[in-house]
Amino acid sequence: MGRTFAALAHIETDLREWAERMRVAEEDAARLPDDERRKLFREHRERQQAAADAGRYYREGRPSYLIGLTCGARTRSGKPCGMTALHANGRCIWHGGMSTGPRTPEGRARALENLKLGRLKRGKS
Ligand SMILES: [Zn+2]
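Above are the sequence and the zinc ion SMILES. Below is the predicted complex in structure-token form.
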């Protein structure tokens, strides 16, 4: 009986220390420059995606230190973009960057096939 309580007390202290470490880590993360936080954001979204791929029901929510993170891309007015709705790459719908085209051999073949079909339909060009 006494041993069990001692062990539980140990676990409680461990948990408390762990919570304190987590809190400090989160406060440190909140003070990071936006570029670093965007890196953390991408890692967070990768973890979410991994959970979804593994079919896990639980997916971690956005950590508090990532709430309010902005896109930050340089806009035409020269100011950083202030959008907070971000894709997995840490940028907003306007600043994700253009597609770099098909990557896999099958995808490339498909794209080429569609190009040929389009040219046939249009006649020339
Ligand atoms: Zn943006």
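Residues 71, 73, 81, 83, 91-92, 94-95 surround zinc ion (CB under 6 Å).
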